[in-house]
């Protein structure tokens, strides 16, 4: 008589190969790695860098409308004269919107924690005056004066004067005087002399410094820091 041997059975719902426990462990590790990677991306976006789109002509020729820029978050002491910065103009350049209610408030809070911003109140300008500076327009050659010394501005849009608006302002502590590079087409600190802060922006409202253009490809490059002089 020929004896028969039963064939090894495969666990229900499984397949031959790695044990079910090992496959489950690999899957858990993959999920964990994905979660950690996502968390790192969110942390970097929230605390290190963000991207913004340039909405207008006000920063030409340095930045053109539609370009995407990379913004490095900075602490207040790191801001220099000449830096190109993105800031929240709520309460200075634009009116504060109504406070969100209910689910909208929860969503806004979560979005803020994750580094996502609505964008309507965000502006990009160049720092011209630091806290304590006296900024004056202009000397007999049409140049801006910082504490009585002429400011050289090689970044200006060709053909533009440093300013067609006359002003003389002492920048308050903890605030900045900001202007666009395309002075004849920029609603900047000069346009808000009668607003709270006299057109200046709080250091705490600075989101970060523009460090590079990332799009389109023909514009990719770094954005130089201010000289501080």
From TrEMBL:
Pfam families: Peptidase_S26
InterPro entries: LexA/Signal_pep-like_sf (IPR036286), Pept_S26A_signal_pept_1 (IPR000223), Pept_S26A_signal_pept_1_CS (IPR019758), Pept_S26A_signal_pept_1_Ser-AS (IPR019756), Peptidase_S26 (IPR019533)
The entry's keywords: Hydrolase, Membrane, Protease, Transmembrane, Transmembrane helix
Protein EC: 3.4.21.89
Region (Disordered): 1-21
Coiled-coil spans in chain: none
Signal peptide stretch: none
Cellular localization per UniProt: Cell membrane; Membrane
Catalytic activity reported: Cleavage of hydrophobic, N-terminal signal or leader sequences from secreted and periplasmic proteins
GO MF annotation terms: signal peptidase activity
Matching PROSITE patterns: SPASE_I_1, SPASE_I_3
Start and end residues of each Peptidase S26 domain: 30-215
Family: Belongs to the peptidase S26 family.
Name of the protein this chain belongs to: Signal peptidase I
Classification of source organism: Bacteria, Bacillati, Actinomycetota, Actinomycetes, Kineosporiales
């Amino acid at each position: 008589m020929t004896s028969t041997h039963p064939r090894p059975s495969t666990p229900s719902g499984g397949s031959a190969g790695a044990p079910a426990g090992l496959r489950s462990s690999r899957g858990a590790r993959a999920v964990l790695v994905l979660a950690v990677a996502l968390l790192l991306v969110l942390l970097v976006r929230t605390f290190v860098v963000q991207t913004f789109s340039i909405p207008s002509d006000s920063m030409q020729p340095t930045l053109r409308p539609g370009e995407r820029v990379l913004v490095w978050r900075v602490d207040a002491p790191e801001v220099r004269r000449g830096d190109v910065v993105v800031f929240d103009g709520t309460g200075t350049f634009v009116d504060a919107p109504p406070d969100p209610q209910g689910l909208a408030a929860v969503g806004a809070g979560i979005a803020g924690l994750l580094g996502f911003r609505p964008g309507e109140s965000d502006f990009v300008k160049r720092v011209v005056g630091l806290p304590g500076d006296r900024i004056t327009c202009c000397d007999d050659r049409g140049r801006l004066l910082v504490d009585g010394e002429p400011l050289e501005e090689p970044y200006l849009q060709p053909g533009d004067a440093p300013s067609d608006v006359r002003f003389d302002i002492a920048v308050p502590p903890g605030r900045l005087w900001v202007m666009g590079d395309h002075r004849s087409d920029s609603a900047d600190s000069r346009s808000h002399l009668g607003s709270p802060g006299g057109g200046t922006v709080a250091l705490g409202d600075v989101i970060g410094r523009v460090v590079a253009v990332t799009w389109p490809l023909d514009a990719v490059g770094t954005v130089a820091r201010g000289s501080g002089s």
